[in-house]
Structure prediction request, 150 residues.
Amino acid sequence: MKRVAASLLSGLIFGAGLALSGMTDPTKVLGFLDVTGAWDPSLLLVMGGAVTVAFVGFRVVRGQPQPVFAGAFHLPTRQAIDSALIGGAVLFGIGWGVSGYCPGPAVALLAAPGREALIFLPAVVLGILLQRWAGGAKRADPGARAPEAD
Prediction:
């Protein structure tokens, strides 16, 4: 139960941060991506803050003998840059650039869904299912293990 509560609290904090920073507003995101037009650099502060928190957080957590709610860390071991990784990154970037949504903010928008989010999220799910159907699940990292249940 503690693990579920911690997950819920983390998700609420993440969603609130996305909303406060403007990451759930596709016009703000598209303004940031439009470097040749009316560029809005304000999301650089959001990214800088996120990278800083993640950098410090990973350093602190990696220094611990084990996670708080699990018996061991479950980290990926693959480091190869292959066509699947590059293709996924390209598709992610195209989708983000066209719609102004990335998956995290789009999920956060379920609290007050708009038409665009209700189109984008099923498209994300369809993309995940197509990737798995096309054999992407076979390429999963054999060194990574699923988290243990409560």
